What does this fold into?
Amino acid sequence: MEAVLLEDKPKNLFESEFYASTVFADRNLIAPHYTPNELPFREKQIEEIAKNLSLCIHNKRPDNFFLYGKTGTGKTSVTKNVISQLSEFVSQKNIQVRAEYINCRNHNSKYRVLIKLVKELYPTENFLGYSAAFVYEKVLDYAKKGNNLILVLDELDKVKDLDELIYGLTRGNDELQGKGGITLIGISNNLNFKERLDPRTKSSLCEQEMVFPPYNAEELRKILFTRAETAFKKNAVEESAINLAAAFAAQESGDARTAVMLLLRAGEISDKNKSFKVTDKEVIKAKQTVEEEIIFDMISTLPRQQQLVLLAISDLSLSNKGIKKLNGLHEEHVLFSGEVYEQYRVKAKSLQENIISSRWYRQYISELEMYGLIHTTSSGKGIKGQTRLIKLGYDAKKIKELIEKEVGG
DNA sequence: CCTCCACAGGAAGCGCAGGAGT
DNA sequence: ACTCCTGCGCTTCCTGTGGAGG
It folds into this structure.
């Protein structure tokens, strides 16, 4: 396909302003939620899913699929890519296959998923207020007309009554008896999630499974190159800048989304400075802002009490109380679980907040570690008793600043 | 070796809010 | 409008654990 140069078109006043970028050719192509056509290093997964789904074009029911892997490993992009190609194909050939994508973060119960689904299937009708059973029947009706329904449920772990939802939808296939069918593709980035499922749900949902491994630095590098080719102007991005962004992201988590995000922010920085190049300098700056965005995102969604716990940790980290002589040898900046709890109590009291129990405080500490906001190690020699040694994952000043903005001094 | 310390983290249960069924 | 139910945030109670100290 021939690329149409912007210069060839008559310009609208605003369009020229809109595209007045020093480095971007098309910023949208590198936005976080853009689904690229090419997905390097996922050919195997695409092929496998497509092969399974292709059964439905011969009017057979494909296996249910369960995809899991960390965020930014391409689960959603791969699935969307496959189902959009499938939809395109079946509409050309007039085959009765319908694929729907639902993100369960926004539709987090059985009822909400079903409502969302029937709204897509019967766009002209209104189902608000109808019972779950009625809506469920509507879905089955749709399949009974001989339609093969493929339902992608992204962020599946967010559904409260998941067992019921899966049971209902898979049991539907027994009632249909070969006339049409319902195929589920579940996506989750929670690796332990599968183990918590009801055994029956597990066996019906996980007829086939697929793991999406994180990308390594080399793969991220190639991904960024292909994305940069279309999103940026020619030669606007220095090769070393891409390498650096890939290295940063690989070191963090092998997450393609952060890698792309880094490059996007770096480009924006160049744009703002009216610079025609994206270099290492911009990527390094972008890393800081992306990091801050992530931290702030996490902190602002934390419960107030947990914010106070984190604030207590950053307070102590900034004071010299945090410096410990471990093993009587070297000094290190770590905190005891007990003293953090004490500091938290003082803090909460002075802000006239109620105080959570020590048990729940420990729960909060575990969560903070999962989010990567703090690191903990178990106490070893030189310390009496069994305690957790706590260390901040990011800069104490920055975190303190962000929380105080949130909590309101 | 036993006991104590200073916690970790599992289990059970409680009050509440909000949603579904009647 | 009303009950019933369920998930959520949290407390209470409890058992487990590794090192320090006698």
The beta strands of chain A are 65-69, 97-103, 148-154, 181-188, 208-212, 323-326, 330-333, 335-336, 374-378, 388-392. Residues 1-8 of chain A have pLDDT under 50 and may be disordered. Chain A has 15 helices and ten strands. Residues 109, 111, 131-132, 336-338, 358-359, 362-363, 366, 378-379, 383-388 of chain A lie near DNA strand B (CB under 10 Å from a C1').
